[in-house]
Amino acid sequence: MTPPLSAPPRPTTIRVASVPAGHVYVRHLADPDGPDEVVRLADVPPADGGLVPGGWWPPAMLDPAWVAANDGRFDVFHIHFGFDAIPLERLAATCDALDAHGVPLVYTVHDLRNPHQRARHDHEARLGLLVGRAARLITLTPGAAEVLQARYGRDADVLPHPHVLPAERLGAPHPAHDGFVVGVHAKSLRANMDVLGVSRTLAVALEGLAGARLQINLHDEVSDPASWAHDPRTAARLRALAARHAHVDLVEHPYFDDEALWDYLGALDVSVLPYRFGTHSGWLEACHDLGTAVVAPSCGFYAQQRACFAYRHDEDGGLDPASLVQAVLAARAAGPVAPAAPAVRLQERRRLAAAHAALYREVLAP
To answer: Do residue 27 and residue 74 come from a single domain?
Structure first.
């Protein structure tokens, strides 16, 4: 009698080609207590060394030639970010190469609507391709999962965003300061932002509020004629707004490094997200870690991601100024927000590490 076939031995580690691997979200999917059963390949810099602003590079892994050349080095291919600039045909060919080599694709849907692109079409084409080709989907909120089911008929595992701050900085007390400081970070005037509308509303609303200040931060590349982000008209209008209101400060600066960003966010009482569209936010998570209140728009699923004060703002209905003012005043009335508890955040991260390992095991099962 022929003995039954036994299952193939379970590998002791799961090797994941993660796109990207160096992003803080991906790094904090690892178990905080030390090595776990998932090993993620390091990011591969582009051959020409070309970096885009902010230090991110177009992922070299998103190429069928790379998949073929590295066959046998990874068990699972997991896409998070970075496919915006990849031609749709090459992205499809990468999926074909993964199929040809028997490697399952996992896709975490961070963005249903790309915050960097004014038009929907390009992102939706890539989103539809990846959602259709992935063996498993992950997203961060129940609302995003419902959209994926309604639009594509696909279920998604809902797993929260891990902490953003380094573990050693979690739980630090919020720095004391005078007054009530509201921040709007214009960054490099990303496509999904209505910085002028939000800032003008807040400048007027805070004018008669004792001790209130509005700090608007803007990357200095907005004023650089050689930069892709050059927008002298908006920069001039923000300078004029600050000049008209003594309680408004405009701070123009290079990109913050991580430590400078944590110090900046920790010095705010409230961070207002000036978004017309979007889905989820790592910025919101950093504020949650630090104990900085967040006023978030009604677009996307920010309010499902973490506790925040919501106002009405989306690309169809525009900005509702009254609801923005109400949200900021509600944040002021609620008082200081406690930083995220380190034990809670680290236990959440352990669960995330275990959940990802289990999901990878499932897609690798015969």
So the answer is: yes
Which run of H or E residues covers position 170?
none
Q: Is the pLDDT of residue 119 over 70?
A: yes
The CATH code of the domain that includes 68 is 3.40.50.2000
Q: What does DSSP say about strands 313-314 and 318-319: parallel, antiparallel, or unpaired?
A: antiparallel
CA-wise closest residue to 26 among 2, 1, 59, 3: 59
What digits encode the pLDDT tens for the residues 313-337? 999 999 999 999 999 999 999 999 9
Q: What is the pLDDT of residues 174-188, one digit of tens each?
A: 888 899 999 999 999
| 135 shares a domain with 54 | yes
Contact, 296 vs 308, CB < 8 A?
yes
CB 76 within 8 A of CB 106: yes
Omega into 8 within 30° of 0, i.e. cis? no
Contact 177/145 with Cβ under 8 angstroms? no
| Nearest alpha-carbon partner for 16 in 42, 40, 35, 36 | 40
Q: What angle do CA 363, 108, 52 make, to 5 degrees?
A: 130
Sheet containing strand 212-219, edge to edge, reads: 248-253, 212-219, 180-187, 270-272, 293-297, 309-311
Alpha-carbon torsion 197, 247, 330, 338, what sign? positive
* Prediction pTM value: 0.93
Same domain, 127 and 202: no
Q: Which two tokens stand for residue 146?
A: 């419902």
Please indicate whether residue 57 or residue 164 has the higher confidence score (pLDDT): 164
Q: Could you tell me where the DSSP H helices lie in the chain?
A: 24-27, 64-69, 88-100, 121-133, 142-152, 195-205, 232-244, 258-266, 282-290, 302-305, 321-334, 342-364
What's the pLDDT tens digit per position in 226-258?
999 999 999 999 999 999 999 999 999 999 999
